[in-house]
Amino acid sequence: MPDDDAVAELLATRRILRVQASSAYVNSRLKQAADNVDSANLLAATNPRAAVTLAYDAIRFAVDAHLQANGLRVANEPGAHRVSVAYSRARLSGLVTEADLDEYEALREVRNAIEYPEAGTRNVLTTDEATQVAAASERIAVSITRWWIDRSR
Fold first, then answer.
1. Phi, psi at residue 18, to the nearest 5°?
2. What Cα–Cα distance (Å) separates residue 89 from each residue in 7, 22, 44, 72?
3. Rounded distance between C-alpha atoms, residue 24 and residue 6, angstroms
4. Do the beta carbons of residue 62 and residue 56 sit within 8 Å?
5. Distance in angstroms (rounded) separating the CA atoms of residues 92 and 87
6. pLDDT band at residue 125 under the 50/70/90 scheme
7. Cα 60 to Cα 57: distance, rounded to the nearest angstrom
8. d(CA 60, CA 12)
9. Beta bridge partners of 123
10. CA gap 120, 114 in Å, rounded
11. Phi then psi for 73, rounded to 5 degrees?
12. Mean pLDDT score of the chain, rounded to an integer?
């Protein structure tokens, strides 16, 4: 069930901003999400880190599309990725499984560790982990795309 109070709080603190909804933007973001899912699936076996990054971005693009369809966008400031996860928790519950929302939240931290590794650490991901993440990104992107298609009718 959508949590309107959580979204109201994100709006009140200007972490999410009101914008003019744009079908063209929504369609573009959903296409980017689908393309990233396809690429993540292709790379899971040979380059798991790249696959995970692509899968994470696929989810973020799909969530951006949902925001835009509702006349919203995440403010461009530090913590924006965390806000995207918070929005997904508030608005996508029921549209996306809780398990996939958990995967998105955990994946934000994994992707952050890949992008900003601490000295002396090795970000080793397995093919199985990358495949699991790619599958979650596909489920989320497909769910949001179906929602958009149904809403556009």
1. -85, 135
2. 10, 23, 26, 15
3. 27
4. no
5. 8
6. confident
7. 5
8. 22
9. none
10. 13
11. -155, 155
12. 93
Q: For residue 121, what are its two tokens? A: 């650490």
The token duo for 33 is 């999400």
**How is residue 142 written in tokens?**
């497909």
What's the pLDDT tens digit per position in 39-93? Answer: 999 999 999 999 999 999 999 999 999 999 999 999 999 999 999 999 999 999 9
d(CA 31, CA 105): 22
Going by C-alpha positions, the residue among 87, 71, 81, 95 that lies closest to residue 144 is 95
Q: Annotate the chain with DSSP letters as a single string.
A: ---HHHHHHHHHTTSEEE----HHHHHHHHHHHHHHHHHHHHHTTT-HHHHHHHHHHHHHHHHHHHHHHTTEEE-SSTTHHHHHHHHHHHH-BTTB-HHHHHHHHHHHHHHHHHHSPPTT------HHHHHHHHHHHHHHHHHHHHHHHHHH-
Q: Which residues contact 38 (CB under 8 A, 6 or more apart)?
A: none
